[in-house]
Amino acid sequence: MKEFSWPVRVYYEDTDAGGVVFYANYLKFFERARTEMLRSYGFEQDRLMARDNVIFVVRSVSIDYLKPARFNEQILVGAKIIENKKTSLTFEQTITRQHDVLCNGKVRIACIDAQSMKPKLIPIAILEQLT
After folding, report:
1. What residue ranges of the chain have pLDDT lower than 70?
2. What's 76's domain CATH number?
3. Where is the Thioesterase domain (predicted)?
4. Enzyme catalytic residues
């Protein structure tokens, strides 16, 4: 499967009182990488909702925190699809600083109908580009 990486600078607002990234903010970094991955293939989420009535939501997350990221560091957020189904994608995501793995996780994303909020088939054009 295709791999994608997105550079992120750690801002003061991302950190806790100790100057390390607050644990929940790693999920925000994961989200940004997935969004930028879609964008890099020409898929804007607002257009998918307007045109195809499709939105993507997080179904489940598993994350392991290994080392802290700190204020003002440059980190790299990776995203790779490791499983694709008719209505969901599972991403393996990793955050690194140079050669150090800071955290890794698996995020399962469900495709749903924007109106009914029920599962919907992932548009074939997306699957063809991402997998």
Report:
1. 1
2. 3.10.129.10
3. 18-103
4. 16
